[in-house]
Prior knowledge:
This protein is an alpha/beta fold. The protein has helices at 29-37, 72-77, 92-100, 113-127, 134-151, 175-182, 198-201, 225-231, 247-254, 259-262, 272-275, 281-293; strands spanning 4-8, 14-18, 24-26, 44-47, 62-63, 82-86, 105-108, 156-159, 163-164, 167-168, 185-187, 235-239, 266-269. The chain folds into two domains: 4-131, Rossmann fold (3-Layer(aba) Sandwich), CATH 3.40.50; 155-293, Nitrogenase molybdenum iron protein domain (Rossmann fold, 3-Layer(aba) Sandwich), CATH 3.40.50.
Amino acid sequence: MTKAIERVDAMGETLRLIGPARRIVSLVPSETEAVFQLGAGDRVVGRTQYCVEPRGAVERVSVVGGTKDADCEAVIALAPDLVLANQEENTPDIVKRLRAAGIAVHVSFPKTVEDAALLLRDIAALLGVDDAHPSLRAMDEGLAEASRQRASRVPVRVFCPIWMDPLMTIHRDTFISDMLDLAGGANVFADRVRRYPLAADLGMRAPLPPERVLGRDVRYPRVTLDELVARAPDVILLPDEPHPFTEADAAVFRALAVPAARNGHVYFIDGKDLCWYSARMGEGVARVAARLDRAR
């Protein structure tokens, strides 16, 4: 008898599969890569246009749109027995429509590295892959080594923007901030929540009271350059996603009166090393840590 597989997702929904998933549509770039890393890439029948890893293998998979505008009819036509989605990257309407069509949808929402590592084991279970798979072992070893090194490091004050116009960054309750912490960085805006409306976020009016912003994500504040100068980061990291920071953007930060600019510690980095929660995390955090070490 085929064994049922059950997992509870980030929305508290219980997902039940009869046997491992065989036809998978992934609407999350990180998780698309993770399925391939777990040796199940041949089961992926649909992906978004942003699911670009692993290069040389993922290109054969049908594209069903973007993360926010996935074509639900195209997904349904692929007859998946599992759709991988994310509460932040995909819209509630996409998840609702696919579930209404009788499709099992697993929704993730990792806010820490530990959350992400547990998520990858959930995905492995849904695929019928042993959680001692080599990619997961390598990830665990990399994360454990990063944790050991962090214990002996003095944290470096880091500013990591995710958008330029308006300038946006990250609160501590984000996966990116937790990756920075594990790499030996201290997020200079860890305590800064997003205020509504935009004028309030930029300090030009009083923010709306808490009851007026219930349910809104406050983890990605829009900040000013004056705020950034006041926070005095030792390092500024410019990832290439979700916003592709340019040399012109870097010039703006290099002109600021902050230690990172004075000491030449404004760096471009691969955004996947900070943002993607696949098995690459063990390698990614090591590369981020190496950047931060230059400022020690």
